[in-house]
Write a structure and sequence with these properties.
This protein is mainly β and about 100 residues long. Helix content is about 10%, strand content about 45%. The strands form two sheets. The chain has a four-stranded mixed β-sheet, covered by helices on one side. The chain has a three-stranded mixed β-sheet with strand order 1-6-7. The radius of gyration is 13 Å and the shape is globular.
Length: about 100
């Protein structure tokens, strides 16, 4: 089980969220949305300092992480975060 944030996605987050080196971005489970793993749930993103990191990936000066208590969402799989150039949006894939 891994968290993989591709460089293009990291640069998009940095620009869109106004992130600076050393900051952290939390990926969390939220109610609603179009999640492919658990109907009625999806993943959200917020700038927040970690409490208990379950998975992390440090890319372009930013720490991206999922707290331990949200790891159940992945069902022991990995999460890849990429940037779709065609649609100019973030894509989260559980693989």
């Amino acid at each position: 089980m891994k968290l993989i944030v591709e460089q293009s996605a990291a640069h998009w987050y940095k620009s869109e969220m106004g992130l600076t080196d050393g900051e952290s971005v939390r990926i969390y489970v939220r109610l609603g949305g179009c999640g492919s793993v658990h109907p009625g749930l999806s993943l959200g993103v917020t700038k927040e300092e970690p409490r208990s990191i379950g998975l992390r990936d440090d890319v372009a000066g930013i720490t991206y992480y999922i707290e331990e208590d949200n790891l159940w969402y992945l069902e022991n799989k990995s999460l890849r975060i990429s940037f779709d150039e065609k649609y100019e949006e973030i894509k989260m894939t559980v693989e």
